[in-house]
């Protein structure tokens, strides 16, 4: 209809449209028109109208040839509020999806009067009151989703009439009372999810006998009684989550009937008895988490038959015996957690054959004997918790092979001998090194000083003697130190973290003196004590640093090349996978949200998903994601970022991930890209951002002169302000204790005013291993930006970020890419710049002459920035400035 029609004519047309429909289906579609108008008035959904033909409205489906009988309304995530009870006056309605809106009030009981109603999704709203018993009238209902609302009261008994229910989702409400017994009698029930409520009483006996139950998720309630064996009887169960209840009794033997069971989470209950050996028949098992129960007996060797097992958490039970040797066959095992049991025997060496093991927690048991020489066996081990056992002997020298270790807990054992110098090779140590309450003797190895990322060092309550080596001043990240209750002597070296400690960190060493102890060294050793001692240790430190630099450069080159190749292969694979997806039918969106209310109407999630199917929409391709441009039906342009390395864990930890995203959406800094929403479907996660019309810094620096003649060379002041923007964004991130995982010019986005915003911030949160979302060990950043120490540590750190930022600065100054052929084989931009003096080249020959020759002022500023860039790209992490300092230096350069 032409928009310019005068109102009177429009009214006439409307009447003309409606009349035949009324005549064709009296009382049917005519009634629908009235109900639809009422809904439109109440909810005002976008895309409803201006036409009067409600069948043409967005999200509305009518039956063919029915003259306007509405069969489905799909309006998820439209920011809707208001009364939708008028939907109950649509007699042909089979499907109503109003999920993720802002609906309040009660669930309209009248919906129960719809004879053809099959699908009702009101999840993620703010609906309150009870689940209406009248819904029982909708006897055709198969899918009912009321999760994530504020519903209260009991699940009404009347709903027993809904015999056709296939999926019932009630999680995240305030429901009380027991799960009704009739749930067990529903013949088609496949999914029952009612987690995070206040449900009590037993799991209905017989549940799983009448239907092929696949998913049962009831965690975080107050359920009592036993896990019914009936759940496993038909063998169809795939996911069982009962964590955080009060369930008792044993794990049913029948669990082994479920060949497709991948997830079992039954931790934090009161389960007792043995883990049944039949568990080995559940061959698909990926996660088995039964911690904090009262389980007894041994760890069944049959678990070794679950070849896909990734996580085995049996902590805090009453398990006894040894860790079965055969568990070493679990190639996919990433975490073995058995702390707080009565396990014993020698260190389970066979476990070291699990090449993917990143966490081994044997703490609080009774393991004894020596630690194996190859304690890490070149593996991916990040967390090794062996404290509170009876291990004896020395720390094996092989500890130096633990190249990815983040935390080592060996406290409260019977370990002895000298602390091996090889400990200094574990440069990755970051969280803690705790050797307290053992019998270590001899002197402290000065190699401890190489652990420049270590935050907590506890060597207390041993028999360590000699002086505290001055080299320990190399531990630049140290915050907490405890050397108390040893036999140390001499002066405590002058080193911030030492002097800032409590006296109790050094007490109990009879011959130790100086700050923070209240003991004057003069009183013990005379006034000249300690002078020569220091000079020597500086020289040693210099020699150590020198050789480290050499080794770093060799190793980093090899690793960088290797990782580059691996990445190339992965990209090809990813492309293939994406191409295949095009044929796949419409994806099933698992969850999605727009964080910013004013944008909720403008964003359509299906359009976001579909945009990623077309290569033509691709904007850029980064380490962790590919970015697409998506044009919404509303006309808005959105950046859609598809995460690559999303493993199943991310999807599994969806809730955490979503929370993290929501938190990030609230981190407000003008130089950080904020997520505006997300879509999770199948195995994919899409993050939505504002579209940045001026592309990335990479494009600005390197793509400009090819085609677009009107786009002139960027000027220096603009580049300098971009550099400062990025530095400020990064400094802010570090201030909130976040490390960026992929700093590169391709991740610096430019808005319409050429303000720079650092992107991919969320990646560091989504992949953070401590958040349990994924393993970080494969993460390095982009080729050419990877700090050299990464070769050793496999860990991205604050100084590592500074290095990558320094590379971006060099790119800006030189207009060259981080890796270019002209630098020569094995030479990257950093090395090319740092070796310029040796080649007899002046800064002029390094900096882009199109910028540096424009004016003396520009040249002076560029030279100052070059100095900053050189500092940032120092090989030794400790020599690099903090980002806060970098911002100051750049601002100084700008004002010079
Ligand atoms: C609600 O549950 C239904 C049926 O189980 C499901 O199809 C739908 O995807 C769920 N809605 C959301 C937003 O997860
Ligand atoms: C659930 O009920 C408790 C008290 O009964 C109340 O404090 C809480 O706010 C309710 N939660 C919701 C989501 O309504
Ligand atoms: C389980 O708990 C119920 C009460 O919640 C109790 O009656 C029953 O005896 C307990 N069973 C076992 C095996 O402890
Ligand atoms: C293990 O996982 C792989 C990949 O997900 C799957 O193809 C395979 O069937 C699984 N094995 C078992 C026994 O379930
Ligand atoms: C160490 O790892 C290798 C594979 O790299 C394996 O063959 C060997 O059995 C492992 N050694 C021990 C003691 O587990
Ligand atoms: C486990 O390690 C093997 C190689 O040892 C690798 O191919 C596989 O992808 C790893 N699995 C996981 C889940 O990391
Ligand atoms: C080190 O381990 C001991 C137990 O062996 C523990 O008591 C102590 O708190 C730990 N130290 C730190 C700093 O966490
Ligand atoms: C250091 O460890 C001892 C136990 O060995 C403990 O009593 C003391 O409180 C600890 N000091 C600090 C500062 O943690």
In terms of topology, how is this protein built?
Layout: H1 7-24, H2 29-43, E1 60-62, E2 70-74, E3 95-97, E4 119-121, E5 128-129, E6 143-145, E7 150-153, E8 167-169, E9 174-175, E10 191-193, E11 200-202, E12 215-217, E13 222-225, E14 239-241, E15 246-247, E16 263-265, E17 272-274, E18 287-289, E19 294-296, E20 311-313, E21 320-321, E22 335-337, E23 342-346, E24 359-361, E25 366-369, E26 383-385, E27 390-393, E28 407-409, E29 414-418, E30 432-434, E31 439-441, E32 456-458, E33 465-467, E34 480-482, E35 487-491, H3 496-499, E36 511-513, H4 521-525, H5 531-581, E37 589-594, H6 605-611, E38 618-621, E39 625-631, E40 637-643, H7 648-652, H8 654-666, E41 677-681, E42 684-690, H9 697-702, H10 716-735, E43 748-750, E44 756-758, H11 761-766, H12 790-793, H13 798-814, H14 829-834, H15 843-846, H16 849-852, H17 856-872, H18 883-895
Parallel strand pairs: 2-3, 3-4, 4-6, 5-7, 6-8, 7-9, 8-10, 10-12, 11-13, 12-14, 13-15, 14-16, 16-18, 17-19, 18-20, 20-22, 21-23, 22-24, 23-25, 24-26, 25-27, 26-28, 27-29, 28-30, 29-31, 30-32, 32-34, 33-35, 35-36
Antiparallel strand pairs: 1-2, 37-41, 38-39, 39-40, 40-42, 41-42, 43-44
Helix pairs in contact: 1-2, 10-13, 10-18, 13-17, 17-18
């Amino acid at each position: 209809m032409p928009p310019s029609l005068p109102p009177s004519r429009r009214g006439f047309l409307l009447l003309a449209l409606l009349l035949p429909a009324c005549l064709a289906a009296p009382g049917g579609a005519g009634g629908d028109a009235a109900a639809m108008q009422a809904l439109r008035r109440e909810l005002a959904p976008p895309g409803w109208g201006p036409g009067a033909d409600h069948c043409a409205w967005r999200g509305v489906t009518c039956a063919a040839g029915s003259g306007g009988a509405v069969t489905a309304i799909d309006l998820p995530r439209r920011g809707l509020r208001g009364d939708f009870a008028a939907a109950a006056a649509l007699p042909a309605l089979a499907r109503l999806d109003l999920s993720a809106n802002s609906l309040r009030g009660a669930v309209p009981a009248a919906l129960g009067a719809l004879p053809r109603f099959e699908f009702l999704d009101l999840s993620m709203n703010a609906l309150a009151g009870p689940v209406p018993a009248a819904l029982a009238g909708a006897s055709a209902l198969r899918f009912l989703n009321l999760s994530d609302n504020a519903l209260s009261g009991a699940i009404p008994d009347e709903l027993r009439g809904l015999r056709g229910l296939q999926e019932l989702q009630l999680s995240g409400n305030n429901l009380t009372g027991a799960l009704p017994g009739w749930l067990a009698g529903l013949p088609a029930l496949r999914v029952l999810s009612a987690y995070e409520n206040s449900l009590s009483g037993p799991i209905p006996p017989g549940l799983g006998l009448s239907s092929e139950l696949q998913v049962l998720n009831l965690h975080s309630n107050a359920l009592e009684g036993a896990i019914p064996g009936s759940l496993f009887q038909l063998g169809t169960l795939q996911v069982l989550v009962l964590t955080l209840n009060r369930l008792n009794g044993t794990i049913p033997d029948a669990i082994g009937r479920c060949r497709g069971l991948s997830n079992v989470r039954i931790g934090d209950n009161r389960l007792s008895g043995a883990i049944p050996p039949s568990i080995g028949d559940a061959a698909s098992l990926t996660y088995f988490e039964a911690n904090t129960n009262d389980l007894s007996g041994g760890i069944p060797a049959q678990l070794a038959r679950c070849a896909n097992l990734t996580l085995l958490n049996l902590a805090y039970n009453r398990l006894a015996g040894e860790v079965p040797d055969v568990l070493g066959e679990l190639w996919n095992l990433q975490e073995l957690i058995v702390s707080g049991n009565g396990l014993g025997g020698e260190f389970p060496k066979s476990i070291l054959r699990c090449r993917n093991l990143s966490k081994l927690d044997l703490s609080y048991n009774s393991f004894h004997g020596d630690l194996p020489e190859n304690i890490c066996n070149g593996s991916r081990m990040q967390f090794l918790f062996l404290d509170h056992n009876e291990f004896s002997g020395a720390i094996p020298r092989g500890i130096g092979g633990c190249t990815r270790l983040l935390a080592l807990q060996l406290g409260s054992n019977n370990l002895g001998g000298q602390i091996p110098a090889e400990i200094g090779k574990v440069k990755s140590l970051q969280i803690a090194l705790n050797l307290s309450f053992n019998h270590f003797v001899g002197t402290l190895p000065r190699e401890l000083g190489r652990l420049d990322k270590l935050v907590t060092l506890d060597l207390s309550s041993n028999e360590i003697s000699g002086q505290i080596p001055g080299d320990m001043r190399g531990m630049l990240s140290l915050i907490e130190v405890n050397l108390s209750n040893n036999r140390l002597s001499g002066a405590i070296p002058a080193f911030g973290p030492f002097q800032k400690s409590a006296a109790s960190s050094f007490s109990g060493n009879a011959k130790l003196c100086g700050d923070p102890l209240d003991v004057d060294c003069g009183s013990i050793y005379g006034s000249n004590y300690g002078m020569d001692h220091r000079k020597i240790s500086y020289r040693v430190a210099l020699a150590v640093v020198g050789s480290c630099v050499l080794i770093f450069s060799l190793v980093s080159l090899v690793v960088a090349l290797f990782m580059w190749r691996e990445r190339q292969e992965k990209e090809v694979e990813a492309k293939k996978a994406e191409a295949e997806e095009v044929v796949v039918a419409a994806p099933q969106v698992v969850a999605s949200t727009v964080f910013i209310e004013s944008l909720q109407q403008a964003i359509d999630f299906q359009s976001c998903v579909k945009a990623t199917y077309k290569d033509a929409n691709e904007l850029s391709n980064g380490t962790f994601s590919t970015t697409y441009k998506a044009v919404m039906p509303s006309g808005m342009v959105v950046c859609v970022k598809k995460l690559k390395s999303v493993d199943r864990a991310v999807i599994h930890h969806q809730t955490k991930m979503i929370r993290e995203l929501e938190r990030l959406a609230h981190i407000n800094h003008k130089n950080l890209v904020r997520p505006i929403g997300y879509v999770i479907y199948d195995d994919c996660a899409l993050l939505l951002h504002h579209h940045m019309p001026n592309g990335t810094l990479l494009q600005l620096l390197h793509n400009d002169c090819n085609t677009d003649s009107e786009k002139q060379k960027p000027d220096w002041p603009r580049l300098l302000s971009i550099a400062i923007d990025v530095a400020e964004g990064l400094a802010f991130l570090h201030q909130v204790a976040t490390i960026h995982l992929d700093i590169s010019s391709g991740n610096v986005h430019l808005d319409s005013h050429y303000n720079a915003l650092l992107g991919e911030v969320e990646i560091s949160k989504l992949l953070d291993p401590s958040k349990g979302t994924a393993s970080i060990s494969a993460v390095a950043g982009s080729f050419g930006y990877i700090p050299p120490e990464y070769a050793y540590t496999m860990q991205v750190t604050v100084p590592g970020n500074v290095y990558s930022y320094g590379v971006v600065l060099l790119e800006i100054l030189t207009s060259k890419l981080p890796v270019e052929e002209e630098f020569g084989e094995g030479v990257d931009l950093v090395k090319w710049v740092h070796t310029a003096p040796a080649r007899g080249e002046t800064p002029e020959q390094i900096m882009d002459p199109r910028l540096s020759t424009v004016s003396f002022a520009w040249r002076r500023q560029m030279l100052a920035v070059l100095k900053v860039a050189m500092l940032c790209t120092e090989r030794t992490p400790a020599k690099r400035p903090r980002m806060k300092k970098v911002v100051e230096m750049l601002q100084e350069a700008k004002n010079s």
